[in-house]
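Explain this fold:

***
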Amino acid sequence: MTHAKQATSSAADHVPAFILPLVVVFGIALRLPGITFSFYGDEAFSLFRDSSQLITDSEDRFRPVFFTLLYLWRQLGFTGEFGLRLLPLIFGVAQIPLAFLVGRKLSGERLAITFALLLAVNPLLIEFSQELRMYSLVALIALAQVYVLLLLLKNADKYGRKELSSTDPQPHPSSFTLHPFYLWLFFIALGLLGVYTHLHYWIFLAGLSLTFLRERKVIAWWKGHAALAVIALLYLPNIPNMLYFQQVRGGEYFVNLPSALPKLFAALTGGFSYFKIGDQVLGRPITTRDILGNFSIFLLLAIPAVIFLWRLIGLHRERRNSRSLWLCHELFTAPVILAFVASVITKQYFVQPKYVIFVAPFALLFIAQIYLSFHFVALRRALTVVGVVVVTIALIHFNDAHDYGRREDWKGVAEVLKTELTTETPLVIHGQRLAMLRYYYPEAPNYFLSVRPPLPGETSEAYASRLLKEFKGVKEVYYVRSDIALQDNQWKDVVVSAHDLLGKRMGVVKFTPRMKLYHWKLNG
């Protein structure tokens, strides 16, 4: 390449300095709406149990990093939905400039800004930036560890162990240098943070081991695998904690295998709250009803997916960007396959989107590289329009918890019950703990009527007969039907139909697709 062509290429790849801050601000703006929404789901574990001391002593002590950070965060005075969720929000926003650094190190600023923008607008990563769990931290750790790996590769290239071929992306020049010894220490430390934050991060490290094998001419393969071995050695003290978790809760996470990969695709592209899904049984299968109810959205996602897959095959045939494309296979494709195989073997939900959240950035890196490789400007524009439509709909749905998504509105339920519950008008508790309701309405337990849940196979009539003995002196009752607390449809149908036999249904208030408040006036 002549000096003139090099200068032209460099100018075309240059991104003005103000663009990245704008993308970061845009990412923050997308993550703020709804951040004060009610705590929900597994956030209860983070809120009540695992952040009450420096290192949690619950069964979640095998993954203590996020909870320890949350404990320290609370000691600084952060409370409430916004204050506490500000911690995962910081992790989520920090992913954006880190994605830029990874993309620039791989192939220059054009890829860097595209990658950063895709990460800033990704609905799944936006949702996890608002969730009081470890998932935004896991994605951040994965990006940081890959960036350190790229620095190690750059150092090896710099000292002449390998010359990049003409088909490989030319890394962005940088004055940043650090002795390889310290880079290896950072790599190991980040790996440790990863596995002590999220058990399935081992799947990501398995993908990195493939990178070390492919790059063995750049970095001696034994060095990379020795670093992974050190991480494994330093994890050994945590094995008893991991086994304890498996003993206590390991059997709860089984998977509906036919739904696993379609759900992962849907989550990575549109997030958890994109589709209109009603009550689901354990395993969360996707049914024909779900597909037909969201058919236009499936098409909106499927058509660009086919185009991108076809172009990816073409890129491999042309051997363009081979180094960065294979990196994506190692950090996205391979971990997904490993997680799916683990799900098949164990029948556990290894491939659930939040359990493989570390692959999300590298799915977007795949998309960024493929998008930039399209020669036809009109096609890129059309794909951009589709992407904008997808993200817009996804974010509208995410902020419409009443009709979409998996979040429960315990705050809304509490506001209603504060004016309705009395000793004669209690809330019937069928074996539920309702920790979130207690959080938003501390006096609520004073008006709880705890009854035994239905027995396996018990009919509505038989259960109604048992309930009648429990309802002496009660005129009206309320009942919160939550899909998260009760995932067995028959269980819920028996409860509701039994109450229908005992009184007149006065109303049903829908708070989310999976959360409703029932009200009955009892007979007699």
In short: Residues 40 and 408 are 5 Å apart (CA to CA). Residues 1-10, 159-169 have pLDDT under 50 and may be disordered. Residues 15-398 form one domain.
